């Protein structure tokens, strides 16, 4: 009963201490990374559609992607209340994580929207 | 979850309407035989509005950030077992000699 529940909690905490830095909660860290990854992927898809409709070509599209990712990073930081270190272990996590994965979706939806709007 | 999701759907609808407007604009340009230099201003406004709505959705729908500091208030372990009222300490098991005691002697 009580003993079993407590021992589970204790075990969890002990494994946290062994695998990670003792001050971080690994499960919540994973949750935060997942939330941020979803936001970034969705924003790169939407950014790709917007770039395609605007008719951007070549380097301008990639500049637009950097712009979108910058705005998304600021948005995520604002969502975390600008106290990054209580939700992520470093600034790199919020600025760079999922950047290149998002780039692939961006290019896909960019070409897709451009083809639909401007070519067909 | 609910509100953010609806806002996201609205943003996607606005974006698709902007795409449709651009297609019509290009068809018109084809008739008047002009070059495409950029989308018209109402499409740009629509795109910005759609982008803002989708941004709102992207930041709210996936869920909240949870604190990773183990000493913060959110991560305190205060849960008790649900059957606390049914725990009995004075029962017939007392009469049976326990194995632990036997080993200790």
TrEMBL record, chain A:
Membrane topology, record value: Multi-pass membrane protein
Annotated Pfam families: EMC6
Keyword Transmembrane helix: yes
Protein name: ER membrane protein complex subunit 6
High-level lineage: Eukaryota, Viridiplantae, Streptophyta, Embryophyta, Tracheophyta
Family, as annotated: Belongs to the EMC6 family.
Highest taxon of source: Eukaryota
Cellular location(s): Endoplasmic reticulum membrane
TM segment ranges: 37-56, 62-82, 94-114
Chief location of this protein within or outside the cell: endoplasmic reticulum
InterPro entries in the cross-refs: Emc6, EMC6-like
Protein source organism: Coffea arabica
Keywords noted in UniProt: Endoplasmic reticulum, Membrane, Transmembrane, Transmembrane helix
Listed GO CC annotations: EMC complex
GO process annotations (BP): autophagosome assembly; protein folding in endoplasmic reticulum
Automatic annotation (TrEMBL), chain B:
Listed GO CC annotations: early endosome; EMC complex; Golgi apparatus; plasma membrane
Sections of the chain in a coiled coil: none
Keywords: Endoplasmic reticulum, Membrane, Transmembrane, Transmembrane helix
Cell location: Endoplasmic reticulum membrane
Highest taxon in the source lineage: Eukaryota
Major subcellular location class: endoplasmic reticulum
Gene Ontology MF term list: inorganic cation transmembrane transporter activity
Pfam families: MMgT
Membrane spanning residue stretches: 42-61
Recorded topology in the membrane: Multi-pass membrane protein
InterPro entries on file: MMgT (IPR018937)
Family recorded in the similarity comment: Belongs to the membrane magnesium transporter (TC 1.A.67) family.
Subunit structure comment from the entry: Component of the ER membrane protein complex (EMC).
PANTHER family given in the database record: ER MEMBRANE PROTEIN COMPLEX SUBUNIT 5 (PTHR21181:SF7), PTHR21181
Protein name: Uncharacterized protein
Species, as recorded: Coffea canephora (Robusta coffee)
């Amino acid at each position: 009963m009580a003993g079993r529940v407590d021992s589970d909690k204790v075990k969890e905490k002990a494994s946290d201490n062994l695998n990670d830095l003792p001050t971080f909660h690994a499960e919540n860290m994973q949750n935060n990374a997942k939330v941020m990854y979803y936001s970034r992927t969705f924003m790169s898809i939407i950014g790709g559609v917007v770039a395609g409709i605007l008719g951007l070509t070549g380097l301008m599209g990639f500049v637009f992607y950097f712009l979108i990712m910058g705005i998304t990073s600021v948005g995520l930081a604002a969502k975390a209340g600008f106290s990054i270190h209580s939700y992520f272990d470093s600034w790199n996590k919020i600025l760079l994580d999922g950047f290149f994965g998002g780039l692939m979706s961006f290019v896909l939806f960019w070409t897709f929207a451009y083809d639909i709007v401007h070519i067909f | 979850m609910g509100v953010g999701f609806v806002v996201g759907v609205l943003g996607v609808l606005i974006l698709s309407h902007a795409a449709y407007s651009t297609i019509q604009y290009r068809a018109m340009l084809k008739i008047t035989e002009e070059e495409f230099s950029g989308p018209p201003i109402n499409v740009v406004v629509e795109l910005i509005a759609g982008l803002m709505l989708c941004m709102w959705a992207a930041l709210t729908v996936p869920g909240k950030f949870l604190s990773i500091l183990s000493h913060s208030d959110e991560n305190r372990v205060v849960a008790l077992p649900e059957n606390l009222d049914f725990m009995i300490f004075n029962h017939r098991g007392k009469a049976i000699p326990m194995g632990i005691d036997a080993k200790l002697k």
